[in-house]
Amino acid sequence: MRTRPLHAVPLLLLLAAGACQAHAGADTLAGGFFSGFLHPVLGWDHVVAMVAVGLWGAFLGAPAIWLLPVVFPTVMALGGALGVAGVPLPGVEIGIAASAIVIGAMVALAVRPPLWLAAIVVGVFAIFHGHAHGTELPDAANALAFSAGFVLATGLLHLAGIGLGTLVRWPWGRWAVRAGGGLISGAGLFFLAQAF
Amino acid sequence: MRVCARLLLLAALLPSAAWAHGTIPGVNQFYNGLLHPLLAPAHLLSLLSLTLLAAQQGMKPVAHELVGLAAGLLGGALAAAWAGDPDTDRWLWAGVVAVAAAVAWARPLPAAVRVGAAAMVGLAIGLGSADVALHGGPRVAALVGSVIGALLLPAELTLVLESVLKRWPHPALRIGLRVLASWLLACALLMLALAFRRGG
Fold this sequence. Notes:
A: globular, B: mainly alpha
């Protein structure tokens, strides 16, 4: 029997059924996962900053292209742990907006710092993003699903940035990526203005 | 199509069971124990992190993680046969953080460290696999099942992962391993923080 893609459709629907039935909120697996997944995705300030991390990694090339996306979730979880523990972190929204401004500017200006410095810059900002996610975690009954959701979403946003960043192999793509960095930096300024 | 359909069906059936996080009605205690590592998130993620470490560090001449895990599991299960039902989740989340950090760091580790880390994880899994509601034969059957399940899962996954890494020795796969480890680390660190918050 030859493989026909249509055969897989009912099976895929079956896979999706659990998520549809759950549809309730953070107290179920699907609810917890999706509310965690959507937390970074629905906040534009998070989205642009995560994409900027991927863009900058791609712009810097190996090993930064994969090291920054490894550093970010690790340090983000430290910030998340602070949020879970109820340790206040002043200026979280400002820090998140600043992450978009600074990392976007790094891409726009084609700044190439040493790898350790790039990791520190990304790591410092990751704490603010993690804190924002972590404060939501105690309310999620299915905490592991929530954590997995937002960690996965963060990773996918980095991947999106890396994907866009691979345009740097062409001269026009290099300018496009730098322009993208400028847009992200501008968006960061907008978020900063909103934070005040 | 047949293989693909079976895998998809299996995947569709697993999540609801996996998140039940308890015994499955109508299933004997040995089988419940066998599935326990899949049903308890802290146990599952600990075993996954050990799997990543074993696959990354290599299995020649032997996967030290599996040797250490076996020793720890046996010790933990023997202790659990008489002990109560200690909550070892915090230890396991801390173990995931440490092991996943080692994978993300990707430096060669001495055999003693690999055996020791796996033994500690095994001990915590063995101790945490006991069910206070069970006594005598069913309790022993559940513990034996848990030990076998907790060994089979990482052993099989390590074999698969290592053969994939050997067959396609592309650097991206090893990088993917490190990225995956950083995600495990992040989840475990948050769960550890939450466990301390809820536990007071």
